[in-house]
Structure formats: structure tokens, C-alpha cells
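**Paired protein data**
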Amino acid sequence: MMDQLPALQVVIPLLGALACALARHGGVAWFIATVVSWAMPVVAWLLLSQALSGGTISYSMGGWAPPWGIEYRVDALSGFVLLLVSIVGAVIMPYARRSVASEIEEKNRAWFYTMYLLCLCGLLGITITGDAFNAFVFLEVSSLSTYAMIAMGKDRRALLAAYQYLIMGTIGATFYVIGVGLLYSVTGTLNMVDLAQRIPEVESTRPVLAALAFIIVGVSLKLALFPLHVWLPNAYAYAPSTASAFLAATATKVAIYLMLRFLFTVFGVGITFDSLPITNIFLVLSLAAMFGASIVAIFQDNLKRMLAYSSVAQIGYITLGIALANHTGMTGGIVHLINHAMIKGGLFLLLGAVVFRIGSVKIDDLAGLGRKMPITMGAFVIAGLSMIGVPGTAGFISKWFLAVGAMEHGWWWIVFLLVASSILSVVYIGRVVEVVWFREPSEKVAEAKDVPLDMMVPALLLVAASVYFGVDTRLTADIAALAAEALLGGVR
């Protein structure tokens, strides 16, 4: 059984999705999805432990040896992303029972859990596969199921949000598959390890450079890199609360992982950073995201949209680590990938709790809510402080590594901009704090109270993690450092 763990990481949620579809009952489907989701972190942890102790795991699908057959590979980075996605899914599922029941019609609930498990399967598949085209297949599995989940939102604008995401996602997937096709036409292989060995022989040819451009643009659409983020705010704002939390914590992070794989493992630093101005491009776009999206977030009345634009800004911090392209900066980017998943997952779950009680997340409707839902809004403040980067929280660790990485380049002005962008986070989080804690309760919140434990505990776990990993960084920062070292080891 231990030898089959890589396959089980993908097969179990796929079969679980089928079981949910056949169940046709929301309660039964929730139970199946919960069991599957709780099994995934166990598999991911075993894979990560093996990868850290015994080196990279290579698994040949169907007995076909790579590069001819599809290969699954697990190393420190992919193993940790598998664990991150699995844990988020496992934590969210107890919360989902009441939240989904309150936001989605009974006839659609089983289909929601079916789409959730298909999305989970796709995200885990993208992370574990070592085949460039197989990554495209899983990318589409996760994307198609995501469109369906978003469309199930009770606001009519959810349909438009899903359609916008479908159009943008299709364009991104098309760009990606064109890039992969160009690589195959030049190298004759789709295996990522084999591609990394063959590309140096043809790295200066136009098809390879065109493939790099297509793949970067395609994946950037999926990860919502500024200015290719236009699909994200509406998708997060109008999706069911459970879907918003799961997607905000996982989907863009897996897309960033795929970007890292291609830039550093497949193409290698020699072509992507030494020969092309990719550092400057990522640097400019990252800074634009950090400031542009944060400024827009300040003026949002819908708190889900505010957090969505905040996510675009936080993605800018992660890609800043790519732009720095040194060990400390890369460590900071990968750590922020992990920390932001915990922080933003917790924040969206807390907003889902607000939706559950008062049916709105418009800021004017939340006046005085802190007095009626003190645990919920207290946790929101703590998670917000972590996103700002207050010392003692996980967000501070990420930004510290990024600042040190910038200083190693002699880019002191980057440190100043990191602080300035964090101040913008203070403004929009502070705006929420002022409304919910320092205003008199509105009629909308008069009867509100904190949600039941099965909804509260998952949110509090993610918020507590965002504090704990700001104090004890052995798991996050140490593994991120190992992953950064492995990625940067591809310098040619």
C-alpha cells in the first residue's frame, strides 16, 4: 500500500467524487467528502516524510517507465504543497455542512460536494504529476469543477462570475497547452525531468522561447498575477462561502507551484533569469499587484471582494520572491504561499460565518457586529494582523525573508515598498475593525451571535496556525528553504 501512495493521492478524491454524484443526497455526499478529505492529509504526510528522508519519490503510472509513461514525482516542495492543499480541504469540510446547507439548494448540494472533490483531485494532480500535458489535464479538471462551484452561489451574479472565470481560464489553459505543444515539437518529450535535460540543447531556439512565453502567460492567468486577475474578485465574492475559502487557500497556490516548476525545474534559471528579463517583469508586476490591488481593496464595500483584491496583492508578495531569485527571497515567497493559504482560508471562513448569521458581508451592514459575534470578529482581527505582517504572526515571517532577500541584492528600496504596502493592508483591515467594534450595532446584526462549534473550530484552527507559524517556523520556513535550495540548484 505504501508504494501506491502517489496514485492514491489522486484516485481517492476522484472515486469520492463519483460516489457523491451517485449518492444524490446532500448529507450523504457531505459525509463521503469529509471522509475523503480527512484521508488526504494522511497520504500527503506519508509522502512528504518519505521525500524528506529518502529523497525524491518517482512513481510510474501503469508500469510504463518515464519518460514514455506518466510519472508522479514528490519532493520537498511538491510534498508540502500536497500537504497544504489536503489540510485545507480537511479543515474546511466540517464547516461546509451548515454553510452549504444555508447557501445551496438541497437538489444541488450533492453536486457541490462532487465538484469540490473533483477540484481537490485536480489540484493534487497538478502538484504531484511529473508530466507537462498531464498537468494540463488536471488543470482543466480543477478549473471546470471550480466554474461549477462558483455558479452555485445564491447571488445571480455568481453565474456571471463563473462565466468570466470560464473565459479567462480557457484562455489561460489554451496558452499553456500551446506552450507544452511547442516544447514537445522541439524535444519529443512531455516528462518534466526529461524536458529539463533536453531543453539546454535547444534553449536559444524560437520555439522554446515562445513556449516559455505561452506557459508563463497561461499559468499567470490561473494564478491571477496582476493585471491578469480580473476574474478573481467576482469569483471569490459570489461563490458559496465554502468554495471561496477553499479556492482562496489552494487554487492560486497550486498555480504558483506550477509556475515555479516550469521556471526553475523545466527551463532552469539559466534560460529564464540569466538570458531573459523575467526578473524585471516579475518585479514590476509584483509591485503593481502589491499596491494597485491593495488600493482597490480599501474602497470595497463587499468584504469578500476586499479579501479577493487583497489576495491579488498577496500573490504579488509570492511572485516577488520569484523576482528576487535568490535563496532567501525564494524561501520568503514559498513561505508566503503557505502562510497566505492559512490566513486567507481562515478569513473567508469567518466571513462565511457572518453570511450564515446575517446574510450579508457589506461593510455598512456589519456595524457593531463585534459585540454580537465577538469570537468571530476577534479571530478576524487576529488573521488580519497576520496578513498585515505584525511581528509574532506568520505574515511577518514571509515579509522578513523577502526583505532580507531584497537587501542581499542591495535593493533597499524594496524593503521600503514592503513596509508601505503593508500599511495599505492596515488601512483596509482597520476599516473593518472600526466598523465592527466601534460603531453601534445596526438592525441587521441585532439578533446575531457566534456560529456553532462545527463552523467556528475550523476557522479558529486556521487563524491559530497563522499565529503559531509566526513563532515556530521549523515546519514552514525550514521546508521552504529546502525547496528553494532545490529549485535554485537548477542554475546552468
In short: The chain is about 80% helix and 0% strand. The beta strands are 57-60, 71-74. The two ends are 38 Å apart (CA to CA). The first helix runs from residue 5 to 23.
